[in-house]
Structures are given as structure tokens and as C-alpha cells.
């Protein structure tokens, strides 16, 4: 039995993340999805709460054969103990998946096996691109699994990200 760990901010969970999970599902029996920066929400960079991100992931993976667990992981000021913090919050795992250089470095230093996944359609499948489209009224829905659009609609997510992206100046 192999259990993997895939960490991301998932702001929001998009089709690139979903393809990564599909790829990982061929290598592991169970997967923990670590919801990074769990305490952050209501900003342009991190609009959605940990709870909303749990809903996006749970509903998107409901038909998957893979056993998955979504675990919120808050940020720490101290990178040197971050892996212990992750391990203290997560079901035990055998291998970590990330393409983030800092995350890879921290896991390797802690003796955890790290695997990288290929990038899928990265020119558009990037959280920043999805959020830009949400703010600018562009077509973001096709970049995310359908259940994610429902969660965002239910939480008033588009109005939220548009409002928090405004400045408080009146243009002068
Ligand atoms: N299109 C993609 N294909 C493969 N991996 C991806 C893709 N998009 C993100 N990832 C990887 O998934 C992990 C989590 O990504 P993250 O939640 O930061 O999303 P992001 O799309 O990189 O977002 P942002 O633009 O908000 O930083 C990272 O390791 C990232 O490299
Ligand atoms: N010191 C820390 O709290 C620390 C260190 C490394 C990664 N992280 C988090 O892990 C996640 C990594 O995800 P991304 O690959 O999506 O950036 C982010 O939420 C990031 O803040 C936190």
C-alpha cells in the first residue's frame, strides 16, 4: 500500500491539478491533498477559504477510484520545521508530489522521497490565469472541473475576488 501527498494552494483547484491527481493515481493507492496556506482567504492571490477548497477537491474527486483525504496545512514562519508540521497534520505518506522548488528542497532535506509531475497545458492551467479571468470577467469556467464552478457560485466567489481586487482609492 502506497500513500502519496500532493501539496498546493489550490486557489482554485483547476484542470492542471486534476490531471496531476489522475497521473498520481496510477502510482499510489491513496492520496493526501494538502491544502497549503490554509489560513489565507479573501485576497486576490488567495480568494477561497480552506473549507471552500476542501469542497472543490472532494466534489471533483467524488467519482475517482482513488482514496483521497484533503488536509488543511497552515503556513509557518519557519521553513526549517515545515515538513514536521505537515507530517503532524497529515495521514502518514510514503512519497510527496510537488513541482515547487522550495517544497522539493524541504522534503528532500527531511529524507522524504519527492516526485515531480509533468506540467499540463501550463500556459492557461495556472491559478494566476484562472484568477485573472475571474477578476476581468473572462472565461474561467472551462479551466476548472465542473463541481468547482458550483462551489464558487455557491460561495459568491466571483463577486468576492472582484471586490477584494479593487483598491480603496477613488482614482485620484
Ligand atoms: N497545469 C499544471 N500542470 C501540472 N502541475 C501543475 C499545474 N498547475 C499547477 N501545478 C502544480 O501543482 C502544485 C500546486 O499548484 P498551485 O496550487 O500553486 O497552483 P498554480 O496553478 O501553480 O497556482 P498559482 O498561479 O496560484 O501559484 C504545484 O506543484 C504546481 O507546480
Ligand atoms: N514555511 C511554510 O509555511 C511553507 C514552506 C513551504 C511551502 N509552504 C506552502 O506549501 C504550499 C505549496 O504550494 P504551491 O506549490 O502551490 O506553492 C503553499 O501553500 C506554501 O505556502 C509553506
UniProtKB/TrEMBL annotation:
<dbReference type="GO" id="GO:0009435">
    <property type="term" value="P:NAD+ biosynthetic process"/>
</dbReference>
<dbReference type="InterPro" id="IPR004821">
    <property type="entry name" value="Cyt_trans-like"/>
</dbReference>
<dbReference type="GO" id="GO:0005737">
    <property type="term" value="C:cytoplasm"/>
</dbReference>
<keyword id="KW-0520">NAD</keyword>
<dbReference type="InterPro" id="IPR014729">
    <property type="entry name" value="Rossmann-like_a/b/a_fold"/>
</dbReference>
<keyword id="KW-0547">Nucleotide-binding</keyword>
<keyword id="KW-0808">Transferase</keyword>
<protein>
    <recommendedName>
        <fullName>Nicotinamide-nucleotide adenylyltransferase</fullName>
        <ecNumber>2.7.7.1</ecNumber>
    </recommendedName>
</protein>
<dbReference type="Pfam" id="PF01467">
    <property type="entry name" value="CTP_transf_like"/>
</dbReference>
<keyword id="KW-0963">Cytoplasm</keyword>
<dbReference type="GO" id="GO:0000309">
    <property type="term" value="F:nicotinamide-nucleotide adenylyltransferase activity"/>
</dbReference>
<keyword id="KW-0662">Pyridine nucleotide biosynthesis</keyword>
<comment type="similarity">
    <text>Belongs to the archaeal NMN adenylyltransferase family.</text>
</comment>
<dbReference type="GO" id="GO:0005524">
    <property type="term" value="F:ATP binding"/>
</dbReference>
<feature type="domain" description="Cytidyltransferase-like">
    <location>
        <begin position="5"/>
        <end position="133"/>
    </location>
</feature>
<dbReference type="InterPro" id="IPR006418">
    <property type="entry name" value="NMN_Atrans_arc"/>
</dbReference>
<keyword id="KW-0548">Nucleotidyltransferase</keyword>
<keyword id="KW-0067">ATP-binding</keyword>
<comment type="pathway">
    <text>Cofactor biosynthesis; NAD(+) biosynthesis; NAD(+) from nicotinamide D-ribonucleotide: step 1/1.</text>
</comment>
Amino acid at each position: 500500500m502506497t500513500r502519496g501527498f500532493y501539496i498546493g494552494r489550490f486557489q482554485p483547484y483547476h484542470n492542471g491539478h486534476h490531471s496531476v491527481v489522475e497521473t498520481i493515481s496510477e502510482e499510489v493507492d491513496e492520496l493526501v491533498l494538502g491544502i497549503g496556506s490554509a489560513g489565507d482567504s479573501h485576497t486576490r492571490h488567495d480568494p477561497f477559504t480552506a473549507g471552500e477548497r476542501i469542497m472543490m477537491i472532494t466534489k471533483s474527486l467524488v467519482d475517482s477510484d482513488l482514496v483521497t483525504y484533503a488536509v488543511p496545512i497552515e503556513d509557518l514562519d519557519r521553513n526549517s520545521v515545515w515538513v514536521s508540521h505537515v507530517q503532524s497534520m497529515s495521514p502518514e505518506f510514503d512519497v510527496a508530489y510537488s513541482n515547487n522548488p522550495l517544497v522539493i528542497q524541504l522534503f528532500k532535506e527531511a529524507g522524504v522521497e519527492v516526485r515531480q509531475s509533468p506540467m499540463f497545458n501550463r500556459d492557461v492551467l495556472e491559478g494566476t490565469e484562472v484568477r485573472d479571468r475571474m477578476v476581468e470577467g473572462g472565461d474561467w469556467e472551462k479551466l476548472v472541473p465542473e463541481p468547482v464552478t458550483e462551489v464558487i457560485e455557491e460561495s459568491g466567489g466571483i463577486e468576492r475576488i472582484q471586490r477584494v481586487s479593487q483598491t480603496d482609492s477613488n482614482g485620484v
